[in-house]
Predict the 3D structure of the following.
Amino acid sequence: MQKTLLTGIKPTGTVHLGNYFGAMRQLVDFQNDYRSFAFVVNYHALTSISDGALLKKLTLDVAMDYLAIGLDPKKTTLFLQSDVPEVTELSWIFNTLISVPYLMRAHAYKDAEQKNKEVNVGVFDYPVLMAADILMYGTDVVPVGQDQKQHIEIARDIAQKFNHVFGATFKLPEPMILPEVKTVMGTDGRKMSKSYGNVISLFASDEEIKKAVMSIPTDSKGIEEPKDPATCNVFAFHELLKAENLEDVRTRYLAGGIGYKESKEILIDNLRAFITPLRSRREDIARDPEAVLRILREGGEVARAEAQKMMHDVREKVGLLLSL
Ligand code: ADP
Ligand code: TRP
């Protein structure tokens, strides 16, 4: 039987190269090989967005982004998290199985708490809802970036706990983290993240690409000096894109003879060649939002039917379902 792959992106801002290489591309690469689900993680987005009109816009954007990168709705079920409200019920049941100290050890909560003492309960409970998302569909693999690894471990712990208490029900999911792109670095050398303002958007304009690349900090080595590709922020992007001239650029770094200005110019060209077709597909898709809504509606029905089957079993096992 085909294994199941599930992936999700939170609609909280522009999708960037970190999201693409860390989590989105795998879906497109593997949609022929797995029973695939992709969803827009809008319940989770509520932990940071309290503007209905904005959330609606960002949600539709993420659905369009998935379609633009090549998600084929005939192969992958694309849906909104909120079209499967059963996940909130499942997360409630999970909430009753795990302890507060256990959840307090989650990195995301600890980070949020350090920044802001008044963390909302949704942030605290975030990994539990994520576990419900993953376990609901019998997921085997979850493509994510390195930063989400702990969340998959929590989902595994919760599955084990439930199975132990109520009998075998949930599969144990595995993260799918590509070793070569564990963490995509941003233009400032820190992890690329919407919240750091160091991103290159997956659909950036030519001008935005140029501006972002030009802002990447480098050291002060002269053109002729040999350079270490492993420590250069510009080269990290060359490696990510794997353009045809990658090995040529690497050789020139090691030998000396390429300056950072030229390296950046090559990168701008490569990024434009990579992004332009994505951007133009994205523009085509945006011309027909009705079609996108239709895909989401149909995907939501498929996902929900699956969730209802799982919840029937869960409700029966935990004792919520009365039947004589
Ligand atoms: P952000 O940090 O920009 O808010 P999200 O938390 O919405 O990104 O992440 C969505 C998905 O993209 C997750 O699977 C996450 O692991 C992945 N991801 C985000 N940033 C990166 C990055 N810099 N490198 C690799 N994967 C990333
Ligand atoms: N936590 C993920 C992120 O920030 C979003 C997410 C929620 C998710 N549920 C998921 C990702 C299930 C994959 C599978 O990116």
About this structure: The chain has a mean pLDDT of 95. The first strand starts at residue 4 and ends at 9. The pocket of adenosine-5'-diphosphate (ligand 1) is lined by residues 9-10, 18-19, 22-23, 144-145, 147-148, 183-184, 191-195 (CB under 6 Å).
